[in-house]
Structure formats: structure tokens, C-alpha cells
Design a protein that fits this description.
This protein has about 450 residues and is mainly α. The protein is built from 16 helices and nine strands. The longest helix is centred in the N-terminal third of the chain and has 21 residues. It binds (2R)-3-hydroxy-2-(alpha-D-mannopyranosyloxy)propanoic acid.
């Protein structure tokens, strides 16, 4: 049973207060993974869902940034590259983290966890931290045109996307080779090249040398990252209303962001990145350009054109969204983020389509379920054959399937699954202590 298997993956990857994306390949806490995991866990253990997010925000920096990796002190340095010694930084709570961020999908996650299991106290606890996360981004990453920059491909979440080939080529190569661990678990054809890794390392080291303050050779306005920020403001408006705060500033911020994206990143049926250092467009066929479908106020003509592109260039009628358009020359169906389908990207676009084109949303939901039925909870899938690639038992693949099933009339039979997995105690446990240190 797919439901029980999904819960089993999440239980296996649970570390006591949060979930690792994969036991071997990614043995720490990752920022946007935890948001997706919380959305799925909310369907069977809202306590774990809340704990996941509280733990992540326990590592928030005093400037409001939520680091993209929170390191597990018990995992050895050699278990992941680049590990805590490379980043050489600690959050106010004392835990080692990276200095980068990832797409801010957390306010949406907090809201969805609340919808699945209403808990105003949790909203009150998370609201100031989510606001601080957004304030950090708009204070230090926003251009005069109102768009946010990412400073490393790892901040996009779609690390190896062909969309970064051009701006990444301008990054000087690191003299130090990367001590990669990823190839111990996944074959080299499915991962970034060594050359990519030398550039990733050089860029991260240069950012570290500025105290994680100043942009280096890579600064890009990415549609997925910006859309996540806009959707976060819409979620914050709902959270604010639920706790008696003023939702209007959040509505205004979401509308302004959407307008800036349409003015500067949209062209010909797709949103594209822009090089923030030169102002030039970085046209590509990345599926990041469809993610703005999650924005509430997207103009109708833009929405319709995006749907046309999804059907035509991204062939979504096949059921899964490829991460890069299949007819584009750079497309590769098995290499990480250069074409394979991912459950989180497909889920985001599925959410954007549910109230606009429910027929297409159904096709994507069926596609995600078929993919995991055929290949298990793999990290990514060949969009044509649904063959699985990357690591096995990948957390967000399991989590988001639970959400899809619940929304498609198959809410998990929670007590039965818990009983089968020996997890009946779940119901009575309480959330972890608040590790939060306070914002300056
Ligand atoms: C991948 O990224 C990490 C670096 O952050 C890596 O390759 O080591 C990406 O797929 C990213 O989106 C994801 O959050 C992370 C953990 O699943 O893995």
C-alpha cells in the first residue's frame, strides 16, 4: 500500500525532531525539504509536522535568514560535502549551519499544516519567524525592480539546472577539488559534473569570505524563488488573519512581487531568470518558469499562456512535469535537475492548476502516483518512462504523495497506518522545546 510505504519512508528518515531528505545522500536537515516534509507529515502526524518546522527555525540566524542546511552534530564531517567545517558558521542556537538559503516555501507549509490540524498557538509561534525570514530576503536580496536574487545555484533548489550554465560559467574555478560524497550513492551520470562542483565550491567559499554578506560572481533573479516568496506573503496574510494581526501588508507585498515578476521576468508564455549583475535576461526552458502558477494574483492572460506552455513544451499530459523542456537541446532525462521529473516541482504546479484547470491537475496527481507506484519513492524520475533515479526512499517524494492522496479523496487511514507501524504513541506526544534564540 502506497500510503503505508510513504509513512514508512518518513519514519525511517525521522531523526527525533526533523527528517533527513535521505539517510545516506543527505544526512542533515535541509530547509525546503523540511517544508515539503511537514506538508506530508501533517496528514498523519501533525505533531511531527510542527516539530519539523520548529526545529528548522530553531537554526534561524539573527538577521532572519533560514539556513539551507542545519547540520546534525552526530553525523560525521565526512558524511556530506561540503560539511560544517567548510561553512564554518553557527546559528545563535549554537548549531552548525550553511550560510545559504533555499526557496522560502515555509509560510505555505505552516499554513497547510494548520489547515490539516488547526493550531493557532503554532501559528502564533511561527508568524514572527516567518516574517523575519521574508524581511531578510527583501532587505538584502531585493533589486530596485522589486525582485529577489539568489547568490548560488544551491539557493534555487534546482542546483544543476541548465538555466545556470551561463551565469555559472563566469565563476572562477576553485583550485581546491571538491571532496564529493554524493558519488558513493548515486551514479555519476545522474549527478552534477566535477567541474560544476568546483564552481559550486568556489562560489560558496567566496560568499563565506564576505561573512555571508556580499554577492560574488553569481546573482540571479529566479522565478521559482521569487514565486515562493510571493506565495509566502499570501500564506502570511492568512496566518496574520487567523492570529488577529493585519493581513493587508502581506497582500500588498504579494501583489507587488507578482507585478514585478510579470514586468521583468515574463516573456512569451514562460517566466525566465534574469542576471542581477548585468540585468540581462537568462532565457531557458526551465520548469521553474511555470512555478509562478502558485501566485494568487497572476493575470489571467499570463496564466493561460503558462498553461499553454505546460501543455505544449512541457508535455504535462504525460502526467509528470519535466524539470526542463524535453525538446530543448540541454534536456537530459536522468541527470539531476536537467530534465527529470521531481515530485516537489510537479506538486507546486499541481497546486497552481487545481483551481484553474482541475483536469490538468488530475493528470499531474495521477502522474505522481503512477511514478511512485512504478519506481518507489525515488529522488527523481524519467518523465517519459517514470523510471526512478537518484537516491531511494527520498523524503519529499513520500511526503507530498500523502498530500496528493489526501486531496484526491484518499485521506490516510491514520490510526490503521500508525497501528501497523507500531506508532500509536504519536498521538499523545508533545512538540519539542522551543530552541529559538530571538531576533536582533
Ligand atoms: C540537492 O542539493 C544539495 C545541496 O543543497 C546537494 O546536491 O547536495 C537539491 O536537490 C536540493 O534542492 C535539495 O534541497 C537537497 C536535499 O534534498 O539536495
Amino acid at each position: 500500500m502506497i500510503l503505508r510505504d510513504a509513512v514508512r519512508v518518513l519514519v525511517t528518515n525521522w531523526d527525533g525532531t526533523y527528517t533527513v531528505p535521505s539517510r545516506r545522500l543527505y544526512p542533515h536537515q535541509w530547509s525546503w525539504d523540511s517544508a515539503f516534509v511537514a506538508i506530508g507529515n501533517a496528514r498523519w502526524s501533525p505533531r511531527r509536522a510542527r516539530s519539523e518546522l520548529i526545529t528548522l527555525f530553531g537554526a534561524q540566524w539573527s538577521d532572519g535568514r533560514v539556513p539551507h542546511i542545519v547540520f546534525n552534530p552526530e553525523a560525521p564531517e565526512s558524511s556530506y560535502f561540503p560539511g560544517p567545517a567548510f561553512w564554518n558558521v553557527r546559528a545563535p542556537s549554537g548549531v552548525s549551519t550553511s550560510g545559504l538559503v533555499q526557496p522560502p516555501v515555509h509560510a505555505l507549509a505552516v499554513w497547510l499544516v494548520h489547515v490539516a490540524d488547526p493550531n493557532v498557538e503554532f501559528l502564533r509561534r511561527m508568524y514572527p519567524r516567518l516574517v523575519a525570514q521574508q524581511v531578510f530576503l527583501r532587505t538584502v536580496r531585493r533589486s530596485p525592480e522589486g525582485l529577489l536574487s539568489i547568490l548560488h545555484p544551491w539557493e534555487s533548489g534546482m542546483d544543476n539546472s541548465p538555466a545556470w550554465d551561463r551565469p555559472l560559467a563566469a565563476v572562477p574555478l576553485s583550485l581546491i577539488g571538491a571532496q564529493r560524497r554524493d558519488l558513493d550513492d548515486v551514479s555519476a551520470e545522474e549527478r552534477p559534473t566535477d567541474l560544476d562542483y568546483r564552481r559550486y565550491t568556489a562560489l560558496a567559499a567566496a560568499y563565506r569570505e564576505t561573512g555571508y554578506r556580499r554577492a560574488g560572481a553569481f546573482a540571479v533573479e529566479d522565478p521559482l524563488f521569487n514565486a515562493a516568496y510571493g506565495a509566502a506573503e499570501s500564506a502570511l496574510a492568512k496566518i496574520a488573519a487567523a492570529i488577529g494581526a493585519d493581513p493587508r501588508p502581506h497582500h500588498r507585498e504579494a501583489a507587488a512581487l507578482t507585478a514585478a515578476m510579470v514586468d521583468h521576468l515574463y516573456d512569451d508564455g514562460l517566466f525566465h531568470s534574469r542576471d542581477a549583475l548585468t540585468g540581462s535576461p537568462l532565457r531557458s526552458s526551465s520548469a521553474a518558469g511555470l512555478v509562478p502558477l502558485i501566485l494568487a494574483d497572476l493575470p489571467r492572460d499570463v496564466t493561460n499562456s503558462l498553461i499553454g506552455t505546460a501543455l505544449d513544451r512541457f508535455e504535462v499530459k504525460r502526467g509528470m512535469l519535466p524539470s526542463f523542456a524535453p525538446l530543448a537541446p540541454e534536456f537530459d532525462p536522468v541527470r539531476y535537475w536537467r530534465g527529470p521529473s521531481w515530485i516537489n516541482l510537479t506538486w507546486l504546479v499541481w497546486r497552481g492548476l487545481r483551481h484553474r484547470r482541475s483536469d490538468l491537475a488530475e493528470l499531474l496527481a495521477d502522474g505522481m502516483i503512477r511514478a511512485v507506484n512504478r519506481s518507489g519513492f525515488r529522488e527523481y524520475f524519467d518523465p517519459a518512462t517514470l523510471e526512478g533515479h537518484g537516491c531511494h526512499d527520498f523524503s519529499w517524494s513520500a511526503a507530498l504523495i500523502l498530500d496528493v492522496l489526501a486531496q484526491h479523496g484518499q485521506p490516510p487511514p491514520i490510526r490503521q497506518v500508525r497501528r501497523e507501524l507500531g506508532l500509536l504513541a504519536e498521538e499523545s506526544e508533545t512538540e519539542p522545546d522551543d530552541m529559538y534564540i530571538g531576533l536582533s
